[in-house]
Write a structure and sequence with these properties.
single chain, three-stranded antiparallel β-sheet, about 425 residues, 14 helices, Cytochrome p450, alpha+beta
Length: about 425
């Protein structure tokens, strides 16, 4: 067992070893997380002055506790959350405090609630259109032969869907995907100077685009989410400043395509490596929603959520100080044997306790309902259209971005 909050020899010694820069963590983080959960479930990493949680109960309790905070200004100076960085010349993202991801109440509720209301209403109205878009993309893929499922299906579907919901120009989807990949680098604690430039470039491009789009929708409303929100803003129903609305529209675009791409790719990979589960879903399509939840539990696209300790308190049996960041490893919680029976088994027929793949509490992923709709439709449509779909024998390559888990390519045969 660990000595206090330090792991024993032979177990991961620093959170940085869980980053994709470590090939073992990139290819399969689950053995590393299991060893931590069993030997040192509440770990203190002085390298980056952060706590790490890996047990389900600790993570569920912490994420649901609304007294924990998120705003970077409330973290200790010198930590990553408090403006510290892996390099002295590296600056934190300037727009972060405007995003609902990093706001605390009352600002968090003021910003999130009207956006969520409009977003969920539009998803509900558009569900038949969303499913039709998904079907059209899959129908355009080759019916036989080899193709990259990530390139032809998993990448284009989420960016097309979120773009149609928002009302952005669909002839610029390639640019949106590129800018999204650049902006998400803001979450990478070990950015290079080149990645800093990409982050800045992508962020500026998206901010300029949404500034123009908001003004265009005020002048000429259309049937889309941006119009919904600027009209709510204009009527006073949404108390949002322009910069807050713009930052959170950017967040919806980025989050709405990158993580759902990974949910699609991870799920299809799991079905192709567990053909009995693919056969079960084909035979019992009513299991589709439960299948999505099992994919989320077993191979979630987001690997980490965080909070900041608001005052001196005990978390997971360990005393923590005000301002200390707490990172919660979601995949570790989702395979905790204290909660899930046979957690290492992928089984869509088993009704399990709720996973934490979308985080929890006030900051639970706002895009969760849309991601579930997309993944459910993709799994059903793909497995129906391709009854003999299989992997084409490639070596898997996982994306190297910290806190996200998804495949770069997935070569299949129809």
């Amino acid at each position: 067992m660990a000595d206090g909050n330090r792991p024993p020899e032979g177990v991961t010694q620093t959170i940085l070893e869980l980053m994709p820069d470590n090939p073992a963590a990139r290819d399969n983080p689950h053995p590393l997380l299991k060893a931590l959960r069993e030997s040192c479930p509440v770990m203190r990493d002085e390298t980056i002055k952060t706590w790490l949680l890996t047990r389900y109960r600790d993570i569920r309790e912490t994420s649901n506790d609304r007294s924990f905070v998120r705003h970077p200004s409330k973290a200790e100076r010198g930590t990553l959350a408090g403006g510290g960085a892996a390099r002295e010349d590296q600056e934190p993202p300037q727009e972060a405090p405007l995003s609902m991801l990093f706001l605390d109440d009352p600002d968090h509720s003021r910003v999130r609630l009207p956006i969520a209301k409009a977003f969920y209403a539009r998803i509900h109205r558009m569900r038949p259109d969303i499913e039709a878009m998904i079907d059209s993309v899959i129908d355009a893929a080759p019916l036989a032969g080899r193709f990259d499922l990530m390139e032809l299906i998993a990448v284009p579907i989420p960016i097309l869907v979120i773009s149609r919901i928002l009302g952005v120009d669909e002839d610029r989807l390639v640019e949106f995907r590129k800018w999204s990949e650049q902006v998400i680098l803001g979450l990478k604690p070990t950015r290079t100077p080149e990645e800093d430039m990409q982050l800045f470039s992508g962020g500026m491009a998206l901010m300029a685009y949404f500034t123009e789009l908001m003004e265009a929708r005020r002048a000429a409303p259309k049937d889309d989410l941006v119009t919904d929100l600027v009209q709510m803003q204009g009527s006073g129903e949404a108390d949002l400043r322009d910069e807050e609305l713009r930052s959170n529209l950017l967040g919806l675009l980025v989050g709405g395509n990158l993580t759902t791409t990974d949910l699609i790719g991870n799920g299809i990979w799991l079905f192709l490596t567990h053909p009995d589960q693919a056969a079960l879903l084909r035979a019992q399509p009513q299991l589709a929603s439960q299948a999505v939840e099992e994919v989320l539990r077993y191979e979630a696209p987001v690997t980490m959520s965080s909070r900041i300790v608001p005052d001196a308190r005990t978390v997971g049996g360990c005393p923590m100080s005000q301002g200390q960041p707490v990172w919660m490893m979601l995949p570790a919680a989702n395979r905790d044997p204290e909660i899930f029976e046979a957690p290492e088994v992928f089984d869509i027929a088993v009704k399990r306790t709720g996973h934490v793949a979308f985080g929890g509490g006030a900051h639970i992923c706002i895009g969760a309902p849309l991601a579930r709709i997309e993944a459910r439709q993709v799994y059903l449509k793909l497995l129906t259209r391709y009854p003999n779909l299989k992997l084409a024998g490639q070596d898997l390559s996982w994306r190297p971005l910290p806190f996200f888990r998804g495949l770069e390519t997935l070569i299949v045969e129809g």
